[in-house]
Structure formats: C-alpha cells, structure tokens
Amino acid sequence: MIRISSQQIFSGGVNRLQDLNVNLNQTQEQISTGKRVNNPSDDPVAAARILKLDQEVGRIETYQRNVGLAENRLQREESSLSSMVDIVQRVRELTVQAGSGSLSAQDRQSISAELKQRLEQLASQANTQDSSGSYIFSGFQGDSPAFAKSADGKWVYQGDEGQRNLEIDDGVNVAISDHGKELFVNVPSSGPTFFTESDPDNSDSARISTGAVLDPQLVSDASPTDLAVTIEDLGGGALGYRVTERESGTPVVPPAAADPAIPYVSGESIRVDGMQFEITGAEAGDQFNINTSDKQSVFSSIEKLIYGLDNLPKQPDAGAITDFNANAGDSLKINDATLSFPTGGGIQALADKINGSDDESLAGIEARIEGTELKLMSSGKEVSIDATGFNGTLQTSGARFDDIGITTGTVDAGATDTARFISSQATYDQLIADSLGNLDNAQETILRTQTEIGGRLNQLESTGEFLDNSQLYAKDIRSQLQDVDYAEAISNLSFQSFVLQAAQQSFAQTSQLSLFDRI
C-alpha cells in the first residue's frame, strides 16, 4: 500500500493544472500569431527549416530591391538618352538648314542662337540625376555633375570612366550606368579635328575659342601631335605668340626657335597646321593647348558648328592681292594654270588673265577689282599661288597661313613666295558636312547604348520574374511548416479549455477531502 500525503496531492494537482494551462496558452499564441511554430521548442526540426527559409526569403527580397533600383536607374537613363536623341536630331535639322545658300547673316545668327539653347539642354540631360541625387553619367564620381563649363565656355567632362554594377542574383551582375566619356566624348569624328583648352594657371581674362578646321589634310598630318601656344612679352607693351610641339618643344610657328615670336593681337585669328582659333585677353606667360584627335565630343561638334556660323562667312571669297606689278617675261602659277606676262602688267592685267583663262583649274574662280585690290572669288575650291621665280612685286592677304610678299623679285622677311588661300564657302560647306557626320556618329553611339540598356532591362525583367517565383515557392514551403491550421487550433483550444476547467473543478473537490472527515 502506497501512502500519499496531502502535500503530494496538492503538488500533483497544481503541476497538472500548470501543464494544461501551458498547453492552452501555447494554442492561444498560435491562434493570435497565426504561426504553429513560435519557438524552436515547438518543433525543432521545423524551426531549423523555417530559419533557413527566412534567410532565403530575405536574400530574395534584397535582390528584388536591387532589381527595382536597377530598373529605376536604367529607365531614368533611357529617358534621358531618348531626350538627347531628340535634341541631337533637332540640331541636325538646324545644321541642314544652316547649309542653305539662301540664308542671310541674320538667319545664321538665329540658328546659332537656337543651337546655343539646344547645347544647354543637351548638357542638362547629360547631368541627369537618379532618385538618390547621384549623377548618372559621371561614372564613380556621382556627387559631381558629368559636364561643366570650362573657363573658355566649353562643356568639359568632369567624371571618370567607371561603370556601376549591381548584383541582382547570386553571381549575376548588371550594369546600371554608362559613363559620359564613352557616350558623349569619345565619339568618332567624321574627319581629323582638334580641341583647345587654357592652362589652369593662366590669367583670369585669358580665353581661347573652339576654332575650326581649315585644312583636314594638314590637321591629319599634324595628328597626333599636341601643340602649345605660349604668349611672350616682346617689350614696349607688345605681346607675341609662339607655337611648339608640347612634348618635344619643337618649334612650329615661327619655324625656328631663334625667330622672333609672331605679334599677338587679342581676338585675331591664329592659323597653324590647318587649324584656326582665336585667343583673347591673354597676358605674357599664358599658355594654351591644341590637341589633335580623331574623336570629338557631341558638345564640341555643336560648339564648332556655332563657331562656324558666327565666324566663317558663307561667301565665295578666297583672298586678296593687294599689290601686283609684273615685269616683262614674268609668269605666275595659279592652281595648275600658268599665267604669262610677256610685256609686264599691273593688277588689271592679272584680273584679265584669270577671268579670261579657260584652264579647268581656274573654273569657278573670279578676279574682281575693288578699289586698289584684286579679290579672288572662289565658289567652292581653294586657290594656290606659286610665285617662285617671279621677279616683279606681289603682295597678298587672306592666305591660309603665310601670305606672299615679294618686292621686285625679293621675298620679304617673314613672308613666302607660295601660298594657299581659304575658300570661305568651301570651308563652311565642309564644316556643315563634318557636323552632320559627327551628329550622326553621336546619335549612333547613343542609340547603341539605348539598345544595350534595353537588353539590361530585359535581363532585369526575367530575373525579377525568377525571383518572384522563387520567393513564392520559399514562402509556400515556409507557410506549410510554420502557419497554424486555425480549425484544428480552435478545436484544440476548446478541448483544452474544457479539460482545464474539468481539472480545476476536480482539484477543487479533491483538495477539500481529509481523514478528519471520517472521524
């Protein structure tokens, strides 16, 4: 016979009630949270699997956020590039319009004014920011605008060549940016070109213009040599300039280091190696760089077009002969035509020779006397004069680089006996043709990038769908392991409440029993 003390009866009853209450509270917690497993002790095996599934869902959600961020950034970039294509197309239309021979000077200035506005719009789009305020086309320098104006007023790239990538799945990365140097700067040029820049240490007022290509062949011959233009003090308040190869220091203009510098006049055109540009506000010691290149930014292409509209007259003007006096027996070669003067002659005789020649090389060239000068009018070709051995007097102006200067058979100091003369109309027409080619190249580069962005967006879409499906599958498995069956839980709760109530009543009855009740 086993003896049970009152203490044991009370302890056993209380423990039983506590166990029933714990089970009841656990069921209530499952119903309130909707989860079958709230603590690892509820189901250790299921809890371990749920933990892994939670980590998987967290990983997928991180990648989904990356996909959303990448889509937002690429869509912003695509929208910006679409706007830029429209701007470039409008610039192209204006370029075609600028090539019309019926435009007045005022019409050209109106086109130039609109081009300047379009250039500002293009720069604004190139400095597009994403939703976080980072500049899309600046590479890794997202805190800085991609393009900014230099001291000379030219748009210059400020970023680097970095390309941002974002991981959108395990081992899967997608590019979410394209740096502006590849997109807008390294655009193949339709012909040899150059760009100018001021040295950062120059005086505040020193500026150099965008310039224009006068002779593509000479620019091509000079490439890839970069030139330096240095301003010198000639004494007495006069300034001069000297052009050298930047790396080697080899003299270019003047051709010898011992030669005096060329007099500098602020704003006057400087022509060297097929290039024309202007320097204004320079002081002694200032330096400017001329960089030849086979690439040209879309901004430089538009800037050069604006420069041409503002500085290159579209007219059949090749140069001028300011003094001419041939001796008997002299001859002069213009292009491929040799003009002979058996009895000598003056400027009128030269004009008659040019206008009366049937040589094919002089077709389209007209000699027109205006006052004491003879104007060479060329509708589309350049004019070259070879006065080698000419014994008379010949002075010219408007030559591409060096004017002819011969006095009674002797070549003047600093002059030459051969020269090529600019056909302003031919130079202008070439600028229009080159600009159209450059704009087409810029458009092609942008469109190619848009195509690449489209491919990236397709990749994001497919990866996003895969992540959605993976997330749905993981959540479904987790739900099966973790979520409570409400019908079963409510039934268990009712049964446990009934059992607890019965146990409480039974304990209340048995706890009052005592041996003293039997005495």
UniProtKB/TrEMBL annotation:
Keyword annotations of the record: Bacterial flagellum, Secreted
Subcellular location(s) of the protein: Bacterial flagellum; Secreted
Main location group: other
Residue ranges annotated for the Flagellin C-terminal domain, each copy included: 437-513
Pfam families on file: Flagellin_C (PF00700), Flagellin_N (PF00669)
Keyword set includes Mitochondrion: no
InterPro entries assigned: Flagell_FlgL, Flagellin, Flagellin_C, Flagellin_N
Keyword Secreted carried by entry: yes
SUPFAM superfamilies for this protein: Phase 1 flagellin (SSF64518)
Stretches assigned to the Flagellin N-terminal domain: 15-140
Stated family: Belongs to the bacterial flagellin family.
Official protein name in the record: Flagellar hook-associated protein 3
Biological source species: Marinobacter zhanjiangensis
